[in-house]
Automatic annotation (TrEMBL):
Superkingdom classification of source: Eukaryota
UniProt key word Transmembrane: yes
Annotated GO MF terms: glucuronosyltransferase activity
Pfam family, one: UDPGT
Top EC class, one word: transferase
Swiss-Prot/TrEMBL keywords: Glycoprotein, Glycosyltransferase, Membrane, Signal, Transferase, Transmembrane, Transmembrane helix
Signal peptide: 1-18
CDD domains given in the database record: GT1_Gtf-like
Primary location recorded for the protein, binned into one broad class: membrane
Transmembrane segments: 491-513
Name of the protein this chain belongs to: UDP-glucuronosyltransferase
Length: 515
């Protein structure tokens, strides 16, 4: 009887294959790791073991996973270079800067393999079932997965990058049907807002020819600099463990078993999807933990018309900003005495700020945004902050600094509850105009409420659906059957990118004209 009961229970509750999973992210990768944290914790609910690897230069937060950090104390973190501050405050970020970042990641990986080689191989030897690879700058993580021979999944902390999507055979198709025949040959990289949107195109529109040209230029440039310049740096860093023909980042992406991204589908414009691509990003983190009394008493001041929070992420240090940045912000917020302003900044409180302004080296951003008195968020436009603005339905003014932040800001602006400031035009009049526009017009709050409803309207929570897809992948031991993947993976880049059409058709036309 006991045996029969056990058999029946076995049919009713079939075991899910559990796995040991190593997530590898960029050096001191708090920002990227926290983008993946919610999904990692959801996998833990299915009894998977998740661990986190990165090069650690100083202590970091508890990520809720086993720590497999390579201690690089005594070495300089290239990503902490003054050059980064110069890029953030003074330069218009482009695909060229990504090549620099791959160089930074490669420099650290080279140091690891020269000076921390035992730790590197100690981590690899733990016999992981699957590697999850940060799509950006996690060079030694790629090496771990490559030499282990185990399957790997690409994890994108924001939207799918242009080059990585091309390596994987993904595409943004212009889709049409003529007499029930599908044509999927022309990629509309020119009609999608580019990842590296310049400040001269904050009004980006596909109806403008120059904007479409720039979008195509950004897409091809990103592809070339990642595939050639960034790839060369990674080959150099991994040369001692991956011999000739050395590491290939394009091939590494092509061989990946799946692609997960934290960019919510509802925020991004409609785009084609393949079987091996999924966005788990449309979720909201709980803010049930109460605010501590220090912030709560300040926010609940009965004289306040509402709370304004200024927070530019972990990378931006106001002490290193050009003088006119601080002067502009302090001048404007000192005028907002009817409101309570919380300003996240490292270091001592600067002189001259009013009593209605509270500064802190760290603020509980998500909890403050969810407080019912918060009326405005001034942000850099990182995806995590963008999603917290969505989940709290908080109107936002963005001052994007680098990376895809301008593109994220543009997406929110298009939804009607955000505005964008050009970091090269920071002045009192501009900032005051943007703040008064949002505070004085209820349409921004109404649009934020409306989009949140759309954002959360899903038949299955995305984290649950992502976990389902992940468990399906594990059912096939980390690699789906060949028919699951797009045929473009088997095509040359010339064919897959339609370069043959772009070259042959003009040549053929010239031949006809010459006859």
């Amino acid at each position: 009887m006991i045996f029969l009961t056990s058999v029946l229970l076995g049919f009713l509750f079939q075991n899910v294959k559990t796995a040991r999973i190593l997530l590898t992210v960029m050096d001191q990768g708090r920002s990227h790791a926290t983008s993946f944290n919610a999904f990692m914790h959801r996998l833990q609910q299915d009894n998977h073991t998740t661990a986190l690897e990165f090069a650690k230069f100083h202590p970091d937060i508890d990520f809720g996973m086993e720590e497999k950090f390579v201690d690089m104390d005594g070495f300089q973190n290239p990503f902490a270079s003054p050059d980064f501050d110069k890029i953030a405050f003074e330069e218009d970020y482009s695909f060229i800067h990504q090549a620099v970042a791959y160089g930074f990641g490669s420099e650290t990986c080279n140091n690891i393999l020269n000076h921390k080689r035992e730790k590197f191989f100690e981590i690899v030897s733990e016999d992981w079932d699957l590697y999850l690879s940060d799509s950006l700058f996690a060079v030694c993580g790629y090496g771990m997965a490559e030499i282990s021979g185990k399957p790997h999944v690409m994890m994108h902390s924001t939207d799918l990058e242009s080059a990585q999507g091309s390596f994987k055979g993904f595409s943004r198709y212009i889709y049409s049907k003529i007499q029930n025949i599908s044509f999927e040959n022309f990629r509309n990289y020119a009609t999608f807002v580019p990842s590296n949107l310049p400040f001269t195109m904050l009004d980006f529109s596909v109806s403008k020819y120059s904007h479409r040209v720039w979008a195509a230029y950004d897409w091809f440039g990103s592809y070339i600099f990642t595939a050639i310049v960034g790839n060369f740096a990674q080959k150099w860093a991994l040369r001692s463990i991956i011999p000739f023909p050395y590491f290939s980042f394009s091939e590494y992406n092509r061989k990946s078993s799946f692609t997960f991204t934290d960019m919510p589908d509802s925020l991004f414009p409609p785009a084609s999807r393949t079987n091996d691509f999924f966005s788990f990003g449309a979720y909201c983190k709980s803010s049930s933990k109460p605010l501590d009394s220090e912030f709560l008493s300040f926010i609940d001041d009965p004289k306040s018309k509402g709370t304004i929070i200024i927070a530019f992420g972990t990378f931006i240090d106001w002490r290193k900003a050009p003088d006119h940045y601080y002067e502009t912000f302090s001048t404007v917020i000192n005028q907002l005495t009817d409101y309570r302003v919380i300003w996240s900044m490292k270091g001592d409180r600067p002189l001259g700020l009013g009593n209605h302004v509270k500064t802190s080296g760290w603020v509980p951003q998500n909890q403050i945004l969810h407080h019912n008195k918060t009326v405005l968020f001034l942000s850099h436009g990182g995806l995590k902050s963008t999603k917290e603005a969505i989940c709290s339905a908080t109107p936002t003014i963005f001052v994007p600094m680098f990376g895809e932040q301008t593109r994220n800001s543009w997406l929110i602006k298009e939804k009607g509850f955000g505005r964008i400031m050009n970091k090269f035009q920071i002045n009192v009049r501009e900032l005051e105009t943007h703040i008064r526009e949002v505070l004085d017009h209820p349409s921004y709050q109404q649009n934020a409420n409306k989009f949140l409803t759309h954002y959360m309207d899903q038949p299955i929570p995305t984290l649950d659906e992502g976990a389902f897809r992940f468990n399906k992948l594990l059912k096939y031991y980390g690699k789906m059957p060949a028919y699951f993947y797009p045929k473009s993976l088997d095509l040359s880049y010339i064919t897959a990118l339609n370069l043959d059409l772009l070259i042959l058709l003009p040549v053929f036309s010239l031949y006809l004209v010459s006859k």
